[in-house]
């Protein structure tokens, strides 16, 4: 195992004869190659900035414009209508040659055309009425809007559309208030609804107008009026553990384990992650689009995927209750999401020890076989953990304020700071787990254990602050734990699915299950990190572990796949698969709890620049009417009609959320403004205290990455997250191809009214609901 001094470029000793300087040529070479790699990255970034800056035009189009203007002048015509001659009059220096002035005019004309095209594209991307038109019926306006294809350009880079995406609009106060009243109507009796209506009217006619003015001012100044406040007040200022409460997980292939060798699986997939990072840095990834269209989505969240860590901080100043862990803006804070431009290593945890593993040697990325060899060295290393090191990661799993204080007191200098820096600045975090995980057909509880392990592990063997951690189990299974503040799950899911497909279908394994290729014998080994943990810090680690362990023990997780049918059969019934599942969840929850509840479904707002999410309130008057009719024994015709009405209503709400006409982000920002102004709003206070007892989200599957026709067994089970409310459920679902659905359902043992066996009810009513709509 490499010693710490191998990472030092030079050493010196002082003797009576003077200073004896010892240079490490290997270290100096690595420093030189690292610098070369960094400069190459800067050059590529500069080139991509220019290419993205002129998009949807291309650099070659400049040459075309210049040749066209010069060719026209050669025929003794003046395409500039006298502007070329006037250029001389307004230049500070003389340009004697007419051809030079023509080139200058051509460049100005080219830039004007680029500006015009970008403005046209921005206006076209601001048009969203096409989403609300029925299938097969297109208005004349939408037919003209289809010109967006012409302005979309060819071969765009990842960030080519960023400058053309529209800003998120601020809805009218009246519209948001009315939509909120409609959403809570099925959850309130007449008396409660009248009281809420009164609060809404007072807010709309009074304080709301003042808050709205400030919010519109922010929307004019900022790129996105929601995203920065959402990241800060919903994620970063939270005091409770991010493990379970915020972080989420992703699972491996359901039916296939490409190799049973832990180190080999790590070798291929870690190499694939760095290939993905290379594509990301070069912007070679295709921009994400709405499926089946050319409409691009914002890619800004991709920027902080690697080399990123969430830093805890302390709040100082007067506190104000913000509900649901949101804090008063009128305090100072130190917490942030820290991103570094580059990192050439990963941080690895195994049996209580932390290692730094370099991914580059002699200026090149290590091959999968070389990474496997390095991982195997860590697995074989017999050295014990340092005092206090084994459960150090529990600090990131417990409450945030104790972790912030411990970080400032014990990890701000010396060897502890250096080792912590190595973890926080790593490309990502890796855990080599000694347990075996993964589902088996004859024991469904194994997949539940697998999901729980990815969600929280042992509470100290993950670094929950890292942008993401990859977990490799002893039997070759792997999984993912993602931190939520820097981006939403679909962004990390895209990279995860790229890694899964690259691992199996491009890199592969030899007959013995090892990675392919050879190993360079001159590779330096992994570097074990050193720590000096005082007893006081060990007490803090134990305290954080106790908090985290209690939370982990309280979580109940159940994962199951529904294979009787999938989205293919649902679409044949002319129903949106997402609306179908949401209505099924409403039906299942009502049967399970005997009541309706405020339901959260995450919808993306990435049609807008720096957009993240919006809430779809899935419990509607229409969905409740359908459930009551079905439970009340109404005839099939009535149930079918109500089902389709509820489905159409859900789709309408989903489209409105995607196009900036949601409810909750607008009200949230108005609430933040009220706290800045130090004014109280009974309406906003009550709205933001409403509990989400059913929190749902759909995991997207990148169908172009998987060949589910020829390889149906190579399908991931998706991922999940913890319950938002202590007395509620967290439900994540995914359509796996055309013939399968998967569900991840979480709740808490401490609540006697919630049990994960709700999944059985869900499966039963999926079949029942299908029977109702299939007979159309």
TrEMBL record:
GO biological-process terms attached to the record: carnitine metabolic process; fatty acid beta-oxidation; long-chain fatty acid transport
Gene3D superfamilies per record: 6.10.250.1760, Chloramphenicol acetyltransferase-like domain (3.30.559.10), Choline/Carnitine o-acyltransferase, domain 2 (3.30.559.70)
Domain Choline/carnitine acyltransferase: 168-755
Pfam families (UniProt xref): Carn_acyltransf, CPT_N
Reactions this protein catalyses: (R)-carnitine + hexadecanoyl-CoA = O-hexadecanoyl-(R)-carnitine + CoA
Carnitine O-palmitoyltransferase N-terminal domain span: 1-46
Family membership: Belongs to the carnitine/choline acetyltransferase family.
Protein name as annotated: carnitine O-palmitoyltransferase
Annotated source species: Gasterosteus aculeatus aculeatus
């Amino acid at each position: 195992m490499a010693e710490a001094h191998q990472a030092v470029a030079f050493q010196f000793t002082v003797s009576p004869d003077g200073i004896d300087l010892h240079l490490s040529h290997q270290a100096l070479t690595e420093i030189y190659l690292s610098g070369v790699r960094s400069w190459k990255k800067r050059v590529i970034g500069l080139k991509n900035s220019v290419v993205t800056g002129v998009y949807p035009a291309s650099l070659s189009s400049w040459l075309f414009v210049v040749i066209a203007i010069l060719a026209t002048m050669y025929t003794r015509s003046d395409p500039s209508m006298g502007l070329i001659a006037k250029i001389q009059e307004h230049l500070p220096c003389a340009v004697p040659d007419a051809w030079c002035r023509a080139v200058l005019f051509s460049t100005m004309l080219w830039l004007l055309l680029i500006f015009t095209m970008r403005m046209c594209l921005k206006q076209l991307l601001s048009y969203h009425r096409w989403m609300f038109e029925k299938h097969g019926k297109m208005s004349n306006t939408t037919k003209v809007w289809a010109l967006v294809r012409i302005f979309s350009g060819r071969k765009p880079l990842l960030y080519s559309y960023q400058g053309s995406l529209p800003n998120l609009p601020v809805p009218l106060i009246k519209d948001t208030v009315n939509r909120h009243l409609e959403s809570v109507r099925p959850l309130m009796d007449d008396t409660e609804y009248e009281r809420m209506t009164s609060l809404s009217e007072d807010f709309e006619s009074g304080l709301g107008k003042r808050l709205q003015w400030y919010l519109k001012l922010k929307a004019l100044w900022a790129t996105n009026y929601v995203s920065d406040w959402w990241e800060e007040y919903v994620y970063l200022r939270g005091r409770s553990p991010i493990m379970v409460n915020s972080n989420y997980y992703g699972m491996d292939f359901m039916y296939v384990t490409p190799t049973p060798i832990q180190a080999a699986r790590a070798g291929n997939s870690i190499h694939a992650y760095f290939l993905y990072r290379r594509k990301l840095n070069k912007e070679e990834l295709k921009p994400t689009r709405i499926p089946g269209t050319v409409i691009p989505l914002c890619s800004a969240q991709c920027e902080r995927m690697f080399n990123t860590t969430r830093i805890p901080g302390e709040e100082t100043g007067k506190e104000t209750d913000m509900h649901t862990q949101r804090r008063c803006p009128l305090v100072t804070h130190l917490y942030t999401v820290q991103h570094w431009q580059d990192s050439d290593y990963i941080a690895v945890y195994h049996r209580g020890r932390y290692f730094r593993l370099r991914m580059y040697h002699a200026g090149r990325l290590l091959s999968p076989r070389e990474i496997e060899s390095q991982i195997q060295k860590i697995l074989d290393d017999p050295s014990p953990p340092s005092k206090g090191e084994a459960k150090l990661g529990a600090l990131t799993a417990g409450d945030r304020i104790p972790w912030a204080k411990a970080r400032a007191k014990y990890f701000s200098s010396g060897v502890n700071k250096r080792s912590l820096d190595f973890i926080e600045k790593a490309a990502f975090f890796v855990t080599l787990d000694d347990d075996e995980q993964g589902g088996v057909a004859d024991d469904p509880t194994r997949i539940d254990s697998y999901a729980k392990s990815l969600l929280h592990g042992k509470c100290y063997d993950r670094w929950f602050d890292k942008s993401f951690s990859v977990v490799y189990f002893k039997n070759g299974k792997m999984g993912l734990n993602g931190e939520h503040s820097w981006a939403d799950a679909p962004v990390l899911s895209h990279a995860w699915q790229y890694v899964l497909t690259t691992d199996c279908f491009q890199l592969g394994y030899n007959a013995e299950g090892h990675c392919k290729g050879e190993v360079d014998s001159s590779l330096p080994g992994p570097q074990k990190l050193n720590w000096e943990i005082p007893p006081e810090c060990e007490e803090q680690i134990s305290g954080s572990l106790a908090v985290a362990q209690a939370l982990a023990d309280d979580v109940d997780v159940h994962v199951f796949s529904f294979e009787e049918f999938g989205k293919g059969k649902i679409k044949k019934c002319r129903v949106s698969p997402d609306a179908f599942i949401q209505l099924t969840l409403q039906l299942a929850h009502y049967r399970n709890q005997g009541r309706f509840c405020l339901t959260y479904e995450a919808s993306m707002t990435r049609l807008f620049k720096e957009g993240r999410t919006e809430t779809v309130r899935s419990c509607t008057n229409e969905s409740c009417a359908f459930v009551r009719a079905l439970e009340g024994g109404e005839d099939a015709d009535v149930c079918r009609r109500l089902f389709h009405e509820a489905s159409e209503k859900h789709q309408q709400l989903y489209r409105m959320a995607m196009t900036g006409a949601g409810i909750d982000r607008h009200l949230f920002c108005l609430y933040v403004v009220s706290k800045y102004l130090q004014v109280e709003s009974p309406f906003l206070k009550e709205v933001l205290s409403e509990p989400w007892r059913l929190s749902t989200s759909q995991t997207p599957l990148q169908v172009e990455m998987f060949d589910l026709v020829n390889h149906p067994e190579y399908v991931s089970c998706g991922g999940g997250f913890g319950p938002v409310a202590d007395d509620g459920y967290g439900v994540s679902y995914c359509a796996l191809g055309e013939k399968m659905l998967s569900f991840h359902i979480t709740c808490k043992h401490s609540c006697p009214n919630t049990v994960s066996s709700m999944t059985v009810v869900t499966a039963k009513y999926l079949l029942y609901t299908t029977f109702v709509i299939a007979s159309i």
